[in-house]
Each structure stands twice: as structure tokens, then as C-alpha cells.
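Progress note, sequence design subtask.
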């Protein structure tokens, strides 16, 4: 008997799932400053002329493409409370400057793509990948993959 595990985001509300994976955050309606992870309090842009009570913040889905700003490999299992597969398998991470927002976001690179396959300036896109599994579910995160 085959059972399919439920797929759950490892961090709820930080990214959309499915075919159009996007980082989810907030943006100031007054000045357009984006925030990831989400900002719930007030716009922190000192040049913003909008209200400072948080009422100007709105839901925002970030662009799903960008260019590698920097990258490295992760050779050691992260300490608790971080969860990783057992046995631990090294992976690449990339700091990516988002296409529209021009801010840098760090994330894992998809399995099978290592640092030898990456270069600064390479175009990448967001996708969803498995961080770890337990008896109940498969827990997912956003990952970067090179654009073909």
C-alpha cells in the first residue's frame, strides 16, 4: 500500500507553493519599500513620508527571478533548532539579488547543483524543494535553480 505524504512549508507564510513559487512579505504602500521576511509594524525607510503606524503595509509577493550575488557550499549539519535530513547531505546556498526589488535573499540551491555549477551573475529562479521529511509530512522550503 502506497501512501503519499502531505507537503507542508517548513516556515508557514514565507513563500507560496505550487507552480509559481514566490517569497511572501510586505511592502509599504506609501514608498514601495519591500520587506522579507514580512514587516508587521511600520515602514522602516527613513525617507518614507507615509504614516508610521503600520497601516501603510500591504501583502507583497516578490519577483521569482534574480541573479546570483554570492554563493557557498554548506558542508556541515546545522545545529538545533535547525532541522536537516539525516544523514546530512552537503548543499549549495546562494545569495540572490531579486530582479525587481534589487534586494538580496539567501536560499538553498536545488539538489544536484553545486558550487562548481554556479557563477556570480547567473540567472536563477525560485522553486520549491524538500528540506526534510518525518513520518507525517514532507517539509518544503524555497530553493534557487539556474534558469536554462
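Output:
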Amino acid at each position: 500500500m502506497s501512501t503519499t505524504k502531505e507537503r507542508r512549508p517548513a516556515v508557514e507564510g514565507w513563500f507560496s507553493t505550487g507552480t509559481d513559487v514566490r517569497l511572501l512579505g510586505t511592502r509599504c504602500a506609501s514608498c514601495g519599500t519591500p520587506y522579507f521576511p514580512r514587516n508587521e509594524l511600520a515602514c522602516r525607510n527613513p525617507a518614507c513620508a507615509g504614516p508610521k503606524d503600520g497601516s501603510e503595509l500591504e501583502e507583497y509577493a516578490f519577483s521569482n527571478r534574480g541573479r546570483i550575488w554570492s554563493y557557498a557550499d554548506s558542508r556541515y549539519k546545522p545545529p538545533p533548532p535547525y532541522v536537516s535530513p539525516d544523514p546530512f547531505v552537503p548543499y549549495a546556498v546562494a545569495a540572490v539579488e531579486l530582479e525587481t526589488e534589487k534586494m538580496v535573499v539567501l536560499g538553498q540551491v536545488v539538489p544536484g547543483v553545486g558550487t562548481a555549477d554556479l557563477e556570480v551573475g547567473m540567472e536563477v529562479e525560485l522553486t520549491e524543494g524538500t528540506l526534510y521529511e518525518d513520518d507525517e509530512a514532507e517539509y518544503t522550503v524555497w530553493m534557487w535553480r539556474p534558469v536554462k
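Residues 63-146 form one domain. Work on this subtask will continue into the next period as scheduled.
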